[in-house]
Amino acid sequence: MWKCKKCGEENEDSFDSCESCGVNRDGTESGIEDIAKSNSPLDYTSTAGTSRMIASLVSFLGWVIVAISVLILLFSLVGSLKENSGLALMGLFPSLAGIISGLLLVMSGQLTRALVDTADNTGQMLAIMKTKREMKLLSAKNV
Length: 143
Known about the structure:
By secondary structure, the chain is mostly helical. The protein has helices at 32-38, 49-83, 92-142; strands at residues 2-3, 10-11.
């Protein structure tokens, strides 16, 4: 929390200008152009690039595991038809387990990616709302 030098209003640390009178944190007057420049939602940068990359890697590894497991399943089925023995079906259960675990990895990677994207979009929406609120306060002060 910080206290406004002009009106004494207590403001959140996330605000660059006073919620009550619109004065900057350092006590100087701010114009609408300054607020628009400093809090432009177009300048929003994501802080979750590493999380997004890891989620994509997990999802990719899941698809690789699914592909390898499907190949093992196909070779196992073709081998059982040619040899007509139960030993060739030994790859059936591990390949099905691989397919299921690979799909679970894909699902967890996609869910993580969705959560990261939601957090980024929420941050951008908050930046837009903050800019609009500060512009409204400043225009009300100038009236």
